[in-house]
Amino acid sequence: MLFKRIKLIFGAGFLLLSLTVCAQPDKKTGISIIEFYLPKLADIEQKKREKRSENPYFTTASSAGEIHAKLQKLQSFVAGVFGEDSRFVLIERNSLNLVQKEKELQKSEDFIDGYVVGQGKNIGADYLLTGDFDPNSNTLSLSFFSVSEQTTVAKESIDLQKALFGFAVPLRDPVVEGARRISARVFPLLMTVVEATEVKKDKAKTLLIAGGLKRGVKKGQVLDVKIKEEREADGVVQTYYRTVAQVEVEKVEDDNFSIVAVKDGNEEVKKLLDSGKKLYCTFKL
User: Fold this and answer.
1) What does pLDDT average to in each consecutive run of 10 residues of the chain (285 residues)?
2) Which of 103, 104, 236, 268 has its CA 20 to 30 A from that of 212?
3) Entry pTM
4) Fold (CATH) for 191-283
5) Residue 48 in contact with residue 73, Cβ under 8 Å?
6) Strand pairing report for 191-200 and 151-159
């Protein structure tokens, strides 16, 4: 298999990490995860003092310190998405120090366009991944930024209010799903449908897919089944991955394979496989 090396930087200041991804051997892409911009403990304490019934910081039983501790885990949740995928290998390197003034500027476009882009070029980074938590809307905003083009190539907004102030949803779950969505848009991952493992009345019930623990596949995840097609638009023929079904991961067999149950599109999946068409599973965008 062909590979390219991707570098990640995150943590206090910057923590440098290396990733290995399927690609051409002569092309290396660098990604830097910048230390997330999170509210300070004093900011959260101020929010708790705002005595309004619609203010979750005031109504929650959690202390400011407990909320602050939860928010400190956001960046590690996002980094974990890359670490669980066999296309990436994380290798810790020496950190680069940022002065406090520069940290404060992380939230601004000037910081992205100036200091961070310069640092990205110095270490060979082609993309920057930034995270910004807004305590007013309780959303985590992720952005992928192209160093060479100096433009944002993908954004993802993750609503964390229920997970942060409730008990029904673990905080990690929506963060991981959001990180997978933005990762899938910038680095699409296609897992081949190997075969239908159970068929009833011309309907595919379960499928074997070429994606397991090394691809970050977990039981209960809902994936899209797609077929590659060519479509013409404005006189230009382009590749189009059409969604034909949804599946739910029933069992992760090992590092490389999983069994998924077809939730809809059973008949079309069966017909396409019977006709020799190649189908792929992808994480939902």
Assistant:
1) 39 38 46 84 95 94 95 91 66 38 51 59 70 95 82 91 88 91 83 95 95 86 93 86 94 95 95 95 84
2) 268
3) 0.68
4) Thrombin, subunit H (2.40.10)
5) no
6) unpaired
